[in-house]
Amino acid sequence: MIQESELSTNLKQANNYYREGQFQYALKKYLNIDTEENSRLSDKDKASLYFNIGLTYMQLNKPNEAKKYVDSIKKEELIDERREQLALLYESLAILFKINYNEKEKLNEINECFKLAAEYHYANKNVKQSLKNYLEVSQLLIDNKNPRESIIIADKVLDEIIHLDDKENDSAQIINNLAVVYCCNNTNEQGLKLLEKNIQIDDLKDHKFNTKYTIRSNYVAALNQMNKIPGPQHYEWVKEEFNSQVKAYYYFNLASNKYYCGEYESANEYFLKALNRIPNPVDKPNLKTKCDILEFISECYFKLKDYQNSYENLKQALEIAHSSKSKKRINSKLENNFESLEQHEKKADREEYMDINISTVNEVTSRKNQNLNNNRKLVLS
What we know:
This protein has 381 residues and is mainly alpha-helical.
């Protein structure tokens, strides 16, 4: 904030209101100053005033108005002393846009905020946080069907990871998230290479368990996408005791591979373990995962000729089906005679499920990407 010795009484009052959490009063005072005293403020003081107005609008959950004022202080000569503050503010604005609006509706604003946060972090020599923000943009572009732009940003991050200390947990998370972006863009070889690098580093120095399991789970998911079979060590990894939802995704990815290899008993065992790791009560993102797992369990029982269990799990999947497309597909299966389906099983059935599995893996890794970067501040102090 501006030095109070330089301020009029109104500006002192506005700052006090802000510190006390009376944001409506603070905003009214700040806007009065902008209207009535603007001509008496230096460029530096104007920049601070607009920063305070933007920050106050953000506290009032009005990201559009906040961005308007913060954007007005982007001139290089005005931000030398507050790059880190601007970076954090733009991160917070991006998150508020995501919370308050349909992502597609405000995609340009969200991406712009993350990019500006990345630029200001980089200018302030905070390379890791800069790369995290660039990866947010890259993942958003994947989610909104713009793979070309996503890869351009991912390649930019790839050029910068040489500056990271591989043994730090944050660095491992960045490399993992970059690998996810490449795998979601069907650039699987590059994604697999990054995950292998992370695993080799992890063997030398343990990262946090959550990061360790995420990396290894995504590695198995990448193998699945490339139709490669995990080795024995990948099944040894999962034996470590670790109570986390991440382990559910790991079991899911192992189970998927067993399923496509025709090992239905083993697949069912891992799918059931994955199901037991989904937390209760189930939140909306996990509801889709649970539905997918139940549908796979039904398929495993069906392949093993246990039609009653197959039917029961399919009914449970229908109860929590997340989209009209899923409901239609599950209803179609429930309406058919299982014995007839077994006799006339088609190759297309496998191809349909392969698409479902790949989509699920992508969505799971996308959510993990979001969770791994869930350490930014929503408000500035």
